[in-house]
Amino acid sequence: MSNDHQQKIEAIQELLRQEKIDGWLFYNFRGSNVFATRILALPGHIIQTRRYFYLVPASGSPRKLVHNIEQWNLDSLPGDKTIYLSWQSLEEGLGKLLGGVKKVAMEYSPRNAIPYVSNVDGGTLELVRATGVDVVSSANLVQHFEAKWDDEQANDNFETAKHLREIVDLTFSFMKQRISAGTSITEYDVQQFMLSEFKRRAITTQNDPNCSVNANSANPHYEPTKEINSPLKKGDFLLIDLWAKKNKPRSVYADITWCGYLGESVPEEYTKVFEVVKGGRDAALSFVQGAFAQGREICGWQVDDAARAFVNGKGYGEYFVHRTGHSIGEEIHGNGANMDNLETRDERRIIPQTSFSIEPGIYLPGKFGVRSEIDLFISKLGEVIVTGPPMQDHLIPILK
């Protein structure tokens, strides 16, 4: 057993004691539970075609249940080993594994409320519960290993967020130059300009950034392509959304959205909606800042409520059609708490060393959509840091 594995087990046990859970029961079958694979850091070359269970108790030595033909698969981990062969011996072995345990956490979410962590099938839950053990969600445990950033990742993110903020200004300048010169320009041209800046700055993205003009901006997940795009012209409203991370292992994403108008002054119809979106964004930000300043624990759903209450109060609630924000990590949509009480009720706590977006939006079908996206990082000390400042405080008149 490596020192890293020992430290991981000790960290898990400390969390279990804090949460008052007797153990964390990891289950996997043919890679169905990616969290088990990553958190247990199993060797990548191992072939896994049979079920295994691995119990980390709140105190004491871990226990393994492995199939006869794959009995060596968990040998990199500490703990006593029980080997099963038949389905009867699997059930018998599971009862032995869970002896003396009353409550375990698994990658499950009641009523599938948080589908991002619900990787254990219903039949396996029935099998575990048949031993007399209560199963609770590991959602809050998972994010300690999947969503927390170390100092290097945080510093890389701050640099990337700075790049993205600079690219926003350069992109607006690129549009102004092309429009003022009477040169044709499309959403795709803007997207490719942003990508050229990504390459120049050694940052990368899994999916291309977005430029949406007029009615296209009312589609929250619109993306232009070389074949499908719209031209930009004077008098157009537009939205740009860009996300990237450093081109190196373990780097984490930054993600921002800005809006502008291709003219010298912004019409009232756009300004009015932007002010509501900004108000929702700032209400959520203030809620998070206030909670951490007071040392008060909050969950993702509460942040969503703060933004949505403001938007609802201005009469635009029906047009705010997605969650307020998402966890951010090595993947753009990470495995920590989302700011969501719409699509799901995310009851995961927001914890230090994690990052997430706040991005309320109002989307008026057939007209235009406004979104303002910022990223927050919660430091080890509970500081609420807005990365890539300054935030957008007004719609940009791009041709001014």
The 3D shape can be described as elongated
Largest sheet: 6 strands, mixed
Low-confidence stretches: none
Helix count equals: 9
Q: Helical proportion?
A: 25-40%
Strand neighbour order, sheet with most strands: 4-3-2-1-5-6
**What would the CATH topology of the largest domain be?**
Creatine Amidinohydrolase
Cα separation of the termini: 64 Å
CATH homologous superfamily grouping of the largest domain: Creatinase/methionine aminopeptidase superfamily
Q: What is the CA-atom radius of gyration, in angstroms?
A: 24 Å
Note the topology.
Elements: H1 3-19, E1 23-28, H2 34-40, E2 52-57, E3 63-67, E4 80-84, H3 87-97, E5 103-106, H4 122-129, E6 134-137, H5 139-146, H6 151-180, H7 187-200, E7 203-204, E8 210-213, E9 237-246, E10 254-261, H8 268-293, H9 300-313, E11 327-328, E12 355-358, E13 361-364, E14 368-371, E15 374-378, E16 384-387, E17 396-397
Helix pairs in contact: 6-7, 8-9
Descriptors:
single chain, 400 residues, alpha+beta, Creatine Amidinohydrolase, Chain A, domain 1, Creatine Amidinohydrolase, 2 domains, six-stranded mixed β-sheet, five-stranded mixed β-sheet
Characterize the structure shown.
There is one protein chain. With 400 residues, the chain is an alpha+beta fold. It folds into two domains: 3-146, Creatine Amidinohydrolase, Chain A, domain 1 (3-Layer(aba) Sandwich), CATH 3.40.350.10; 151-397, Creatine Amidinohydrolase, CATH 3.90.230.10. Helix content is 34%, strand content 20%. Helix 8 runs antiparallel to helix 9. It starts with a helix and ends with a strand. The model has no long low-confidence stretch (mean pLDDT 97).
